[in-house]
Specification:
This protein has two domains: 72 residues, no CATH class; 208 residues, Catalase HpII,  Chain A, domain 1. The chain is 32% helix and 20% strand. It has eight helices and nine strands. Helix 2 runs parallel beside helix 3 and helix 2 runs parallel beside helix 8.
């Protein structure tokens, strides 16, 4: 018994030494002057490239985030004609129906039955107006199945990328000199088992401009039109979400509502902390558009391969919907470089 207790204490001491060495190193990094955005992005790109290239499978470079494509769908994006005047900006200036492409994905898991964060990316085509970045005529929206990011700032995100690259995730979350316990708690709450991606609510997590001049800051959300989603047979296995979407579309089109939330309190609804949820009781989302997905073939090997090549970027946007905050700022170049890497240099 005594020998067993001694062995446990020795293991505990070893763990504490391991963590302390890493924490002291991290603490020194925190003490350094804040790196410029360009420096942050350069290191992010280098480490993301190393992570994804080491995970190549049959010549395919996976995405760093939203790793598994559940499916891509052609959809209609109908802007309503009865929206509030203050929200009639950019894409939402006039009632109109656009063609759109939607990609649903798992954030990290290849097995659909596992807890995970799900992603929804939207590309709207035929958009008129001045484009911030990318190609003319399209508007991208990127959303997750939890209303906040698990990291608050670009520095936190770089810490996460470093930990993942160095396979030291324990040090990222448990570190008395640079704690990320809030990140751990957010991930714990955000990762869920889902039955149907068409029945999930999604949020942009980061804020965007809405309009020109003294434009307001907003966040976006996509919500199922009907709280009682079309029932599908209980599927199980690594592709159960894909099966659920296929069953759904054989019974009914999928309907989603696109909403906008106005920032009403800059302190309680910060631009620069992506881990803060904006209170919907104070500022509810206002529906401005409806997305409809009709029956279509999306799960053939060819369709899924094409889906995997599609790229999305929050900066592929009209100037009226400019991304706000430093988290969005680093996403422009990191998403672009990651896309080039996956598509072997293609834009």
């Amino acid at each position: 018994m005594k020998d067993s207790m001694t062995a446990q204490w020795i293991r505990l001491v070893h763990l504490l030494v391991y963590l302390t060495v890493g924490c002291l190193t991290a603490g020194a990094l925190v003490a350094d002057e804040m790196a410029s955005t360009e420096q942050l992005v350069a290191e992010m790109n280098q480490r993301i490239a190393a992570i994804t290239q080491s995970s190549e499978n049959n010549g395919v470079t996976p995405r760093f985030n939203q790793a598994k494509s559940l499916g891509c769908f052609v959809a209609s994006f109908r802007v309503h004609d009865d929206i509030d005047k203050s929200l009639k900006q950019g894409l939402f200036l006039q009632p109109k129906t656009f063609r759109a492409l939607l990609r649903f994905a798992n954030a990290s898991e290849q097995d659909d039955s596992e807890k995970d964060i799900r992603g929804l990316s939207i590309k709207v085509f035929g958009v008129e107006g001045e484009t911030l970045w990318g190609v003319t005529g399209s508007q991208d929206f990127l959303l997750n199945s939890y209303p906040a990011l698990f990291v608050a700032t670009p520095e936190d995100f770089l810490d996460f990328i470093r930990a993942r690259h160095d396979d030291e995730m324990i040090r990222f979350f448990i570190n008395p000199f640079n704690s990320h316990l809030k990140s751990l708690w957010i991930l714990y709450k955000a990762r869920e088992v889902h039955s149907n991606p068409f029945a999930i609510r999604y949020w942009s997590t980061t804020p965007f401009m809405h309009g020109n001049g003294d434009a307001m800051a907003v966040k976006y959300s996509v919500t199922p039109c009907d709280e009682k989603s079309v029932l599908t047979d209980e599927a199980s296995g690594k592709d159960q979400l894909r099966s659920a979407m296929k069953q759904h579309l054989t019974k009914s089109p999928a309907c989603l509502e696109f909403g906008v939330q106005k920032q009403t309190d800059p302190e309680a609804m910060p631009i620069e902390d992506a881990s803060v949820i904006w209170d919907e009781e104070v500022a509810p989302f206002i529906t401005v558009a409806t997305l409809t997905i009709e029956t279509q073939v999306f799960d053939t090997p060819e369709a899924l391969a094409a889906c995997e090549k599609v790229s999305f970027n929050p900066w592929q946007s009209l100037i009226e919907h400019k991304p706000l905050g430093r988290m969005n700022e680093v996403r422009r170049e990191t998403y672009f470089k990651a896309s080039q890497l996956r598509n072997k240099g293609a834009p």
